[in-house]
Amino acid sequence: MENEFRLTVSSKSVNEGFARVVVSAFITPLDPTLEELADLKTAVSEAVTNCIVHGYKDKYGKIYISGKISGDVVKITIRDKGCGIDDIARAMTPLFTTGEGERAGLGFTVMESFCDKISVRSAIGKGTSVVLVKKIEGKSKW
């Protein structure tokens, strides 16, 4: 199967749930298991939340979400034009977080554990792009 989508949303918390719903609907034709669906929704949620909380901090901007299905592989890209990440390797270290507050520092760790592959590109002052890749085995392949 081949398919793709593009979506632009404001960096508001309410759109984190919207992004999850869009991705869920997008992969439905692959007949994912509940676990596969939950995994990808959670990874997308973490990436979108990172855009809102870390990318744009206390201001609003746009979050660009796109998806592509090639066969049984789903690739979701979440991108912002926020502040960027100065040290990607450090940011991806479990428990690393910026600033004070309730953040656990597990966003990238969660994304990595729920996806087959994750890649992150970033430039200071220009934004960050996170690509999530997951093969969907699906219920019909059991």
Structure description:
- The chain has 142 residues and is of the alpha+beta class.
- It has a single domain, classed as Heat Shock Protein 90 (2-Layer Sandwich).
- Helix content is 34%, strand content 30%.
- The protein is built from four helices and five strands.
- It has a five-stranded antiparallel beta sheet, with helices on one face.
- Helix 1 packs antiparallel against helix 2.
- The longest helix has 22 residues.
- The radius of gyration is 15 Å and the shape is globular.
- The two termini are 18 Å apart.
- The model has no long low-confidence stretch (mean pLDDT 88).
Radius of gyration: 15 Å
Give the percentage of residues in beta strands.
25-35%
User: What structural class do the secondary elements suggest?
Assistant: alpha+beta
Task: State the helix count.
Answer: 4
Average pLDDT over all residues: 88
Strand order of the largest sheet: 1-2-3-5-4
Separation of termini? 18 Å
Summarize the structure.
By secondary structure, the protein is of the alpha+beta class. The protein is built from four helices and five strands; from the N terminus they run βααββααββ.
Present the secondary structure layout.
Blueprint: E1 2-10, H1 14-27, H2 34-55, E2 62-70, E3 73-80, H3 88-91, H4 107-114, E4 117-123, E5 127-135
Antiparallel strand pairs: 1-2, 2-3, 3-5, 4-5
Helix pairs in contact: 1-2, 2-4
Relevant terms:
4 helices; alpha+beta; Heat Shock Protein 90; 5-stranded antiparallel sheet; 142 residues
